[in-house]
Write a structure and sequence with these properties.
four-stranded antiparallel sheet, 31% helix, six-stranded mixed sheet, Rossmann fold, 213 residues, alpha/beta, 2 domains, globular
Length: 213
């Protein structure tokens, strides 16, 4: 069953074509990979799916609801797009608690569990400004999963991770897949895509091509 369905999606910004007639569906419970060079349209497509950017034409349905028509932002989505932004002089836990209090969807135990799942100590008092890039990526993933979403949209989640961190992140994502989660991941790493993904699509100058379905 398709949990994300995109039809004839066009996006132009200041007369520049960013996405061109993108049509694709992503099945539930699988990991779907997006590959392509910088500027190929991967991140913009993810932002459209999340409701952050409105396409020029075409439709995006998530869980049967059209984004921008039935809802402004799809529900049950966890997101990492670009480097996660956190308040630098709060701890990791305090950052997530602040976000959770705004959304009213995750309690203290869910935050602690999400942090532990990605290899972070929820009791650590260290300010995020003193986190390594890899730790911030883990915290971003903890934020993405703490509300127990059905879908994860992850743009280059391995950025800044060392070899051990990459292996850990792959394990987390495969674990989420076994829980029935749907994951859309953009990565520059052909190895990540090969190890993780059930389907692979390539973006080039705003056009999508299926590599493996």
């Amino acid at each position: 069953m398709a949990i994300i369905e995109i039809k004839e999606l066009d996006l132009s910004i200041k007369k520049t074509e960013i996405l061109k007639k993108v049509s694709v569906s992503f099945e539930q419970g699988k990991i779907h990979g997006l590959i392509g060079r910088n500027g190929s349209g991967k991140t913009m497509l993810m932002k459209c799916i999340c409701g952050f950017i409105r396409p020029t034409s075409g439709t995006i349905c998530v869980n049967g609801r059209e984004v921008g028509k039935d809802c402004d932002f799809p529900e049950n989505i966890g997101i990492i797009i670009e480097t996660p932004g956190f308040i630098p002089y709060y701890s990791g836990f305090k950052n997530l608690k602040l976000i959770a209090d705004l959304n009213k969807k995750a309690d203290t135990e869910q935050i602690k569990r999400a942090m532990s799942q990605v290899g972070l100590d929820p009791t650590l008092k260290r300010h995020v400004v003193k986190y390594s890039l890899g730790m911030r990526q883990r915290l971003g993933l903890a934020q993405a999963i703490m509300e127990n979403p059905d879908i994860l949209i992850l743009d280059e989640p391995m950025n800044g991770l060392d070899k051990e961190g990459v292996e850990d992140m792959r394990k987390y994502l495969l674990d989420f897949k076994t829980q029935g989660k749907t994951i859309l991941i953009a990565s520059h790493s052909s190895e990540d895509i090969e190890v993780l993904c059930d389907t692979v699509h390539e973006m080039d100058k705003g056009v999508m091509t299926a590599i493996r379905e």
